[in-house]
Amino acid sequence: MNNPGKVEIIPIRVAKDIAVGENIVKIISDYLKKNNESLKDDDVLVITHKIISKSEGRIFDLTQVKPTAKAKKIAANHNKDPRLVELIMSESLRLLKLRQGVILAETKHGFVCANAGIDNSNVSQNHNKVTLLPIDSDRSARTISKEIRIREKKNVAVVISDTFGRPFREGQVNVAIGISELEPVKSYVGKKDMYGKSLRVTEIAIADEIASAAELVMGKTSRIPIAIVRGLQYSSRNASILRLIRRKENDFFR
Question: Looking at the structure, do residues 176 and 228 belong to the same domain, yes or no?
């Protein structure tokens, strides 16, 4: 990443709903052809978690959820569906803040996000259907990378993305919640800036920047759950998304 050049972001439209049990790599392969695209070595494949969650069966019907007394109490106080609150609690290590109808939770993965990442957009025409985050997005990303090597004969990195809010900033951005074959952080600590001064704390969240850049072509209503980021120089290694989760002792917001 010392001499960055041109980077392309290529959208891959998928004109179908993903069903439980479908093979994501086969879908990627099929729709690469339908979009007249192909993968190259060292591409980064960005995939929205929604289609991963669907294929892995992480879809729940709220009509099948029986809320506890605690969920009902929280729901009544914060204008939420008690069934959704029950799911949020089941997916969380702890609820961090409840305010103005928003539940900020720390998920079992360690992510801090609204509603523990549970979402009912782009799921189904049935308003009672919601998606949960994949159980292990790193594992999902590794599986996809491995199967692409077998099916497409290409070595690619994979970033699984979701949309998170940010402290002190309006709007949401896409961030990485799972990675494969990609070092998620580029550290400049100990290096010199352009004027020769030592850098002491600068670390760039490369995986999050890739996810956010890909969202520019993906959108939320365009049926583009996959994008190829091409031309990016990155460090390829077996790493985990946990590298991007800030330790509590260093977290000013909790």
Answer: yes
